[in-house]
Design goal:
The protein is mainly alpha-helical and 524 residues long. It has a domain at 280-474. Helices cover 75% and strands 3% of the residues. The chain is built from 20 helices and four strands. The strands form two sheets. It has a two-stranded antiparallel ribbon with strand order 1-4. A two-stranded antiparallel sheet has the order 2-3. A hairpin with a 2-residue loop joins strand 2 and strand 3. The longest helix is centred in the C-terminal third of the chain and has 36 residues, at 347-382. The radius of gyration is 22 Å and the shape is globular.
């Protein structure tokens, strides 16, 4: 076995171990040299990204893999061996790709954006710990370890949100986030305890094979969905998201998108995998529940974005609206599949809805992430966040303006950007369920377009204000990070079929193929 094969055989463990080790080494390297520390963190995340790509190629070519921390034999004599399992399928690695793209971009962007702040050794350590939590959540096949990684993301996110400890609103946003996260974590832990007490197992696949959908199982389902939807920022449990996204540093806002989507991954995994074998007729109501939550999230996000004057807070509400499209797509899939009167013509649209929802998860991370970086660039150059006190920046910040236009078109679903491809799949599939759903989704995108055109005019066009005469373009590292994300947006938009066939189709198939997930069970 050559070095590459050995590396790949342990890649699932290394995806967590490398950034975890980096998090503890970062303060030590920071004592030597700040520049060396930044290079080290970017290198750690870059190497982790390469491992994600190599592992993704293996999974897409050969199918899911199971990595065991501990004994391969679940029993020694009559004793059960305590061990940890990573069960990685196409959906898991799909989410891992999103997490590492956001983390790498955040670290690159932070080089210049955060350089004038103190406490950067802690900042970069927390950034790596947050990456560990996100990757662990999407790779683990064990419910309790999912909870552990969920807690890691919560603690690291809270500290990063409140990084500006001299700003009261930042500390308040961090406090609000940790309170909500603690309540959600308690719900998750209670649900795990209920399932463990019933089935004496924590492995997701083994639990899925055992669940009978008893009254206790239904309580656990409600607890899990409520907690993870809260973590995902779905209306009406979105109260923490605008404050957290707008008060954190722009680089942190970027990576927080990944933690939000890791929560949504938990929702999808619970519905399709953990309870996939037992939700039959109730799936109709569950599907419609997701559709309604998606519509509410979409509409609340758009309406609240209309009245915002703070640049980052407006983007935060736009991000909430985009979360609604994901729930709408997944809910449409569940509803169509559960309908006993489904026709052969309608059946394919269930899978199209699921593909649209999952594709939009990646697209949303890119589009909203780019807009947050643009907002951060504007603040870096002007020290201003109010749209009422900005204007004429396009004259001195040409590259940032171009990146904003790309983000504006992408989040609004305008071709040829990536948002158009995923939203079109959602429009087509929801039309088969109910044309009104498709109309609401299209109108929401039109409203988002109008909102961000208003922002474009307010911040970048119009007369240049006197106080911004000396404004300059942001440093190259920030432009490079924005260009990195913008390149993904353009490639995904120009070649959507390639992206869908390569990574989205396998992820959607993995989510609905519950039996396939079971086949990779090694024990609990």
């Amino acid at each position: 076995m050559n070095f590459l094969d050995q590396l790949l055989s342990h890649a699932p463990a290394l995806l967590v171990a490398i950034p975890l080790l980096g998090a503890f080494l970062t303060p030590l390297i920071g004592r030597v040299n700040d520049k060396l520390r930044n290079i080290f963190v970017i290198g750690i995340l870059g190497f982790t990204g390469i491992l994600v790509i190599l592992l993704a190629q293996q999974i897409f070519a050969s199918g899911p893999i199971t990595y065991v921390f501990g004994s391969l034999d679940p029993y020694v004599g009559k004793e059960t061996v305590i061990r940890i399992l990573f069960e990685i399928d196409a959906l898991s690695i799909f989410m891992a790709m999103i997490a590492i793209v956001l983390s790498f971009s955040a670290a690159l962007y932070s080089w210049a954006y955060m350089e004038k702040n103190t406490g950067l050794d802690k900042y970069y350590s927390l950034l790596l710990l947050l990456t560990v939590g996100m990757l662990g959540m999407v790779l683990t096949g064990d419910m309790f370890n999912f909870f552990v990684f969920l807690e890691i993301t919560s603690i690291a996110s809270c500290a990063l949100i409140a990084f500006y400890i001299n700003k009261v609103k930042s500390v308040e946003a961090g406090f609000k986030y940790i309170v909500v996260s603690t309540i959600g974590a308690l719900f998750v832990l209670m649900a795990i305890a209920l399932l463990y007490g019933q089935y004496d197992a924590l492995n997701i696949a083994k639990l899925a094979d055992s669940i009978t959908f008893s009254f206790v199982d239904k309580i656990a389902l409600v607890l899990l969905i409520a907690a993870l939807a809260m973590k995902g920022g779905i209306v009406p449990m979105h109260m923490w998201l605008p404050d957290a996204y707008s008060r954190a540093p722009a680089s942190v806002s970027l990576i927080l998108i990944g933690t939000t989507q890791a929560g949504l991954y938990g929702v999808f995994r619970v519905l399709f995998t953990l309870y996939g074998n037992v939700i039959t007729l109730p799936t109709i109501s569950m599907g419609w529940a997701l559709v309604i939550l998606g519509l509410l999230t979409m509409l609340v996000g758009v309406i609240m974005a209309l009245i915002q004057i703070d640049f980052k807070r407006l983007i935060a509400y736009g991000a909430i609206a985009e979360l609604g499209y994901m729930f709408l797509g997944v809910g449409t899939c569940l509803t169509i599949l559960a309908n006993p009167d489904i026709t052969l013509a309608q059946a394919p649209f269930a899978f199209e809805a699921l593909k649209g929802g999952l594709f939009h998860v990646f697209n949303d991370a890119l589009d909203v992430g780019l807009l947050f970086m643009v907002a951060g660039a504007v603040y870096y150059a002007t020290k201003e966040t109010s749209l009422n006190r900005l204007g004429g920046l396009a004259r001195n910040m040409k590259y940032t303006t171009i990146f904003f236009i790309i983000g504006l078109l992408a989040i609004s679903g305008i071709p040829p950007m990536n948002g158009f491809a995923s939203k079109l799949l959602i429009y087509e599939s929801t039309y088969q369920l109910n044309p009104i759903l498709s109309i609401i989704a299209i109108l929401s995108s039109i409203m988002l377009l109008a909102i961000f055109i208003k922002v474009f005019h307010a911040a970048f066009l119009g007369p240049k204000l006197p106080q911004f005469d000396t404004v300059k373009e942001v440093p190259r590292s920030m432009l490079l990070a924005m260009g990195f994300i913008a390149a993904f947006i353009i490639i995904f938009g120009l070649f959507p079929d390639l992206i869908v066939n390569t990574i989205v189709d396998p992820a959607a198939n993995a989510l609905i193929d519950n039996a396939g997930y079971m086949r990779w069970l090694i024990g609990g």
